[in-house]
From TrEMBL, chain A:
The chain crosses the membrane at residues 26-52, 72-101, 113-137, 143-165, 261-287. Keywords: Cell membrane, Membrane, Transmembrane, Transmembrane helix, Transport. Pfam families: BPD_transp_1. Belongs to the binding-protein-dependent transport system permease family. CysTW subfamily. The keyword Cell membrane applies. It comes from the Archaea. GO terms for biological process: phosphate ion transmembrane transport. PROSITE patterns: ABC_TM1. The keyword Transport applies. GO terms for molecular function: phosphate transmembrane transporter activity. It comes from Natrinema pallidum DSM 3751. It is a multi-pass membrane protein. This is Phosphate transport system permease protein PstA.
Automatic annotation (TrEMBL), chain B:
PROSITE patterns: PROKAR_LIPOPROTEIN, TAT. The keyword Lipid metabolism does not apply. GO terms for molecular function: phosphate ion binding. It comes from Natrinema pallidum. Residues 42-287 form the PBP domain. This is PstS family phosphate ABC transporter substrate-binding protein. Keywords: Signal, Transport. It comes from the Archaea.
Length: 295, 324
């Protein structure tokens, strides 16, 4: 009796755990494949649709109601202009905030409150940021609805929490012993941050910023909220020019009656958007790796 | 450690260079802000009807090829949204409109010292469509249409004609911000009745097509150009305004047989905006192109050459008044 009860669970345990083991492995593999297969299917589908549409003329022409003459240039340039402005705004603000919170601020209630807020802001839906941008930049500061500046500032607000959090994590990862060593050499706090902490943390900060910029380039909802125009012709000629972005133009094309737009032109736009996104990411990764080797 | 700090010193200088570059960039940006008001004249901002949008888009596209330095923005906001939120508030120079400007809107523009100039650019035919499988229906009278679309009217097909199926309507129409809605409301429903509100309202014509394709008992209405792009997947209904059934086509709209659902399309130019060279050039360019094939390619009926000459005169007079 005692031997029986001792054996059965042992056997059962062994058998059940092996089946479970295999089953869980397969389940995990399936979970991985769902992601990869659907991504591959999407890319393949879009790439096949874009063949014959994505040509030089598409990249250099303004939009047109005739799908064979339609071009992407103003949206392409608009997106890049917005991205550059966003990088220029978020990088100093994000790193500055992270340095303050990690290196200077006391661990008091106020700091914890700010920290909590930043973490929560990272999860706020982008439409809400669009409304904020509409009220603040378009309404209060009156920098023009749908302008390059309004678009860049609004999206910069959106990705700022992500940049701050990742920069904080990168700064936190710098070993305290290095700071202490720097102080031991007689360096001031500013010298320590400049010469020890930031160079060490820079690759991590860059990674966070790149990922955030990747999110920014695909944002559409905040642009709709700040009344970015449906379509723009000609290139932005000032910071107050009305600007269109690639996702917005793609969304607009998807609503055109002709099936040539719904498949060919939209697919060509999507491929261009992906290529620009990957290019920005790889340039940034190259810069980051250079930095990593130098320090 | 000491090696570490010396190694990172050049990097620190690099960062300083970056900061310097960034501040140069920012001050350049500020300088740009002051320069912007000078460059403002190089922008043309347009909002308004999604029905007129493709016409303006086609013209703006060829204008842009000849004037690549002009920044021309075009939004779909619906006629009323365009007048109320953009044009009469002084935010845009031109408004696309699928109906004439309303008195309240003229007043709103007047309060902001904006004088709208009306220019007809094309004629549109509204099209009522049903699912191609709805084989019981080819033609509706204006009264029947009103009964279907008015508030508190018919709910089932059999309410209109006893031989038709005893199934509820599934209705897709233009959103209330749209000029298409205003026009349908005025032409079919009339002033005594209200347009029903329990229908799928949208600014996106594609949604209407998809809805009507999806159900045998669906019905919708939108601009003729959208139907002419999809003639096989949906069925257009002929309309009987008392003189027999007339089917919607470019022909019947141009000769005025397709009543009451053919309508003029306009652009409104703010007279004050004509002070800007870019707006003047664009408006002139638009008027010259409005009587060409460009409009019929988009699916609308072009205006006659007499009407075009009349527009050009009107524009010329306004420009002279502003620049004098």
């Amino acid at each position: 009796m005692a031997a029986d009860t001792g054996e059965t669970p042992a056997d059962g345990f062994g058998r059940v755990s092996r089946t479970k083991d295999v089953a869980f492995r397969l389940l995990a593999l399936a979970a991985t494949l769902v992601g990869i297969v659907s991504l591959a299917a999407l890319l393949l589908n879009v790439a096949v649709d874009a063949v014959g549409w994505l040509d030089w003329q598409f990249l250099t022409n303004p939009p047109h109601p005739n799908p064979y003459e339609a071009g992407f240039l103003p949206a392409l340039v608009g997106s890049i202009a917005i991205m550059l402005m966003i990088a220029l705004v978020t990088f100093p603000l994000g790193v500055g905030a992270a340095v303050y919170l990690e290196e200077y601020a006391n661990d008091g209630y106020l700091t914890r409150f700010i920290q909590l807020n930043i973490a929560n802001l990272a999860g706020v839906p982008s439409v809400v940021y669009g409304l904020l941008g509409l009220g603040l930049f378009v309404g209060l500061f009156n920098i023009g609805y749908g302008s390059v500046l309004a678009a860049a500032f609004t999206i910069a607000l959106l990705i700022l929490p992500i940049v701050i959090i990742s920069a904080q994590e990168a700064i936190r990862a710098v070993p305290d012993s290095q700071r202490q060593a720097s102080y031991g050499m007689g360096a001031t706090k500013w010298q320590t941050i400049r010469n020890v902490v930031l160079p060490r943390a820079m690759p991590g900060i860059m990674t966070g910023t790149i990922l955030a910029l990747g999110r920014a380039i695909g944002e559409t909802a905040p642009l709709i909220m700040i009344a970015a125009p449906t379509t723009v012709f000609g290139l932005p000629n000032s910071f107050f020019s009305k600007v269109s972005a690639m996702p917005l133009q793609i969304y607009n094309w998807a609503s055109y009656p002709q099936t040539e737009f719904q498949y060919g032109v939209v697919a060509a736009g999507v491929v261009t958007l992906l290529v620009v996104l990957l290019t920005i990411n790889s340039i940034a990764i190259v810069i980051r790796n250079r930095y990593q080797q130098r320090t | 450690m000491s090696r570490d700090s010396t190694a990172s010193l050049p990097a620190g200088l690099g960062r300083r260079d970056f900061l310097a570059a960034a501040s140069v960039g920012l001050s350049g940006g500020l300088a740009g802000c002051t320069g912007v008001f000078a460059a403002e004249g190089n922008n043309v901002n347009i909002a308004g009807s999604s029905t007129v949008f493709p016409v303006t888009e086609a013209i703006a596209s060829s204008f842009s090829e000849q004037n690549p330095t002009v920044n021309l923005s075009l939004s779909k906001t619906g006629t009323g949204g365009g007048f109320g939120n953009f044009f009469c508030a002084g935010r845009t120079d031109i408004n696309n409109a699928s109906r004439s400007i309303a008195d309240a809107e003229i007043e709103q523009c007047g309060n902001n010292d904006i004088t709208p100039i009306e220019l007809q650019v094309a004629t549109d035919a509204l099209t009522v469509v049903v699912n191609p499988d709805a084989d019981w229906i080819d033609c509706l009278t204006v009264e029947q249409l009103r009964e279907i679309w008015r508030a508190g009217g018919a709910t089932h097909w059999s309410d209109i004609n006893e031989e038709w199926p005893d199934e509820p309507f599934e209705l897709y129409g233009a959103a209330t911000t749209s000029g298409t809605f205003d026009y349908f409301n005025e032409a079919i429903i009339g002033e005594e009745e209200n347009h029903r509100s329990d229908y799928h309202a949208t600014e996106r014509d594609r949604t209407i097509v998809q809805g009507v394709q999806g159900s045998e008992y669906a019905m919708g209405y939108f601009g003729f150009s959208y139907y002419s792009e999809n003639p096989d997947s949906i069925k257009a209904i002929s309309v009987d305004d008392g003189d027999g059934c007339v089917e919607p086509s470019i022909q019947t709209a141009m000769n005025g047989e397709y009543t009451p659902l053919s309508r003029p399309l306009f652009i409104y130019v703010a007279k004050e905006s004509l002070e800007k060279a870019a707006v003047r050039d664009f408006a002139r360019f638009y008027m010259k192109r409005a009587a060409t094939d460009l409009v019929s390619e988009v699916g609308y009926v072009p205006i006659t050459e007499d009407k075009r000459d009349e527009n050009i005169e009107k524009l010329k007079a306004a420009i002279e008044e502003v620049t004098a």
